[in-house]
Design brief:
The protein is mostly helical. It has one domain: Na+/H+ antiporter like fold. It is built from 17 helices and no strands. It has helices at residues 3-27, 32-43, 61-82, 86-91, 93-117, 122-133, 138-147, 153-180, 186-219, 226-244, 250-261, 267-292, 304-329, 333-342, 347-359, 365-391, 395-400. Helix 7 runs parallel beside helix 16 (365-391). The radius of gyration is 21 Å and the shape is globular. The termini are far apart. Residues 403-416 have low confidence and may be disordered.
Length: 416
């Protein structure tokens, strides 16, 4: 088969398997995203090894799927943003700041201590802690949208905390890498912060003043699906700008694009078009692709101790750190616990940080494999824990704060 036919075959298998697995997952009372993640592991090198089946000879097929998956996560975070409102997100800024900050500090400290106790060198243990500090809320955002809890104080705080987490981790990672390479300077840190400020300023000014006018003009044209095309262009521009100008993850940029589109009168039209494109094609590829890149066969029993310790750290540190930050920010105990669960997933962000350590020679391939497995497991369990935290929360939190025993979606004026 030609490379194109191989791509079509792979997409047929991935999309069909994702939707079937998602349906089965819902039947068993779990979010559909859990089934899509799990089927990715089955199709990956751990079991089926789809990309290396006899009829697949295209060496670049996995790269093409990865690129489609990246578009999927960009669209997913855009949809999360368009469901919210800037005013509502601003009102949860206190929760976001404390939760995002402590959600970085706790994993670094606990991960570093765990690494030292396991006999790691100082800088390697510190880097492992940095890897565990990363958060990817794309999985949590999808789960909250499925459960109908995105427009709650937990949802607003979670997405805001992810932005703080992204900024904080990038700053610390840049300082760490520069330090071990011997090129660290206050000027470089200032330049990085300046780039972030410039991005947020330009993105905000464009989104607030110019974007609504452009949307109106595009809406008035007779071009077929002109609004959908325009939206996609804006999503990609915001994602590209976040990377090139702000030196941040592209998903941060597309999330903000969604926030600004939520202010337009064409919001519903835009959201419907992107949802069809995202959930019908790109998002399932993203969820499956996580498993396609994970090879559980590389795991060695010799590193079982490291895996167990760091997996516990990965889960507990986010629940404690982000949860405590949310409580300080004004949420109830139960809401804080829910938000902490939503921050557990490391997803593609954790993989990116880990790859930086591998490429720099800081961590071995064995440690990289363990980190990838930790990222995968944390991503898999997040939708399960998040749903359980809403539907069947621990009794402790209900007793601690009876008012939080039932969390209902709140209107914008109710968000603190």
């Amino acid at each position: 088969m030609t490379n194109f036919l191989q791509l079509l075959t792979a997409l047929i298998i991935i999309l069909s398997a994702a939707k079937i697995a998602g349906h089965v997952s819902v039947k068993f009372g779990q979010p559909s995203v859990f089934g899509e993640l799990l089927i990715g592991i089955i199709l990956g090198p751990s079991l089926v090894n789809l990309i290396n089946l006899p009829f697949i000879s295209d060496m670049h097929l996995i790269d093409t799927i990865d690129e489609m998956a990246e578009i999927g996560v960009l669209l997913l975070m855009f949809l999360a943003g368009i469901e919210l409102h800037l005013r509502e997100l601003a009102r949860s800024s206190r929760v976001a700041m404390f939760s995002g900050s402590l959600g970085v500090i706790f994993p670094i400290l606990l991960g570093f201590l765990g690494g030292i106790l396991l006999g790691m060198e100082f800088k390697i243990a510190l880097f492992v802690g940095l890897t565990l500090a990363a958060t990817s809320v794309s999985i949590s955002a999808q789960t909250l949208m499925e459960l109908g809890y995105l427009k709650t104080r937990v949802g607003f705080g979670l997405l805001g905390a992810a932005v703080y987490d992204d900024i904080f981790v990038i700053l610390l990672l840049s300082i760490f890498v520069a330090s071990i390479e011997g090129v660290f300077s206050a000027a470089s840190v200032f330049l990085l912060i300046l780039r972030m400020v410039i991005f947020f300023s330009l993105a905000g000014a464009f989104g607030y003043f110019i974007l609504p006018k452009l949307v109106k003009r595009v809406s008035a044209t007779s071009s077929s699906q002109g609004m959908l095309t325009f939206t996609l262009v804006m999503v990609f521009i915001y994602g590209l700008s976040a990377e090139l100008i702000g030196n941040m993850a592209a998903i941060t940029g597309t999330f903000f694009a969604g926030l600004f589109f939520s202010r337009t009168i064409e919001k519903d039209q835009v959201s419907a078009g992107i949802q069809n494109l995202a959930y019908g094609f790109f998002v399932p590829i993203f969820f499956v692709s996580i498993g396609l890149k994970t090879n559980l066969r590389l795991f060695s029993l010799e590193s079982l101790g490291f895996l167990i310790v760091m997996l516990l750290v990965a889960v507990i540190s986010k629940i404690l750190g982000s949860g405590l930050g949310a409580k300080i920010g004004g949420l109830s105990w139960q809401e804080s616990y829910q938000l902490g669960n939503g921050m557990i997933s490391r997803g593609e962000v954790g993989l990116i940080v880990a790859s930086i350590g591998a490429n720099s020679g800081l961590i071995t391939s064995a440690v990289l494999t363990d980190i990838v497995i930790i990222v995968l497991i944390s991503t898999l369990i997040t939708p399960i824990l998040l749903k359980k935290s809403f539907t069947n929360p621990p009794v402790f939190f209900i007793i601690k704060d009876k008012k939080a025993s039932t969390i209902e979606p709140v209107k914008s004026e109710e968000v603190e």
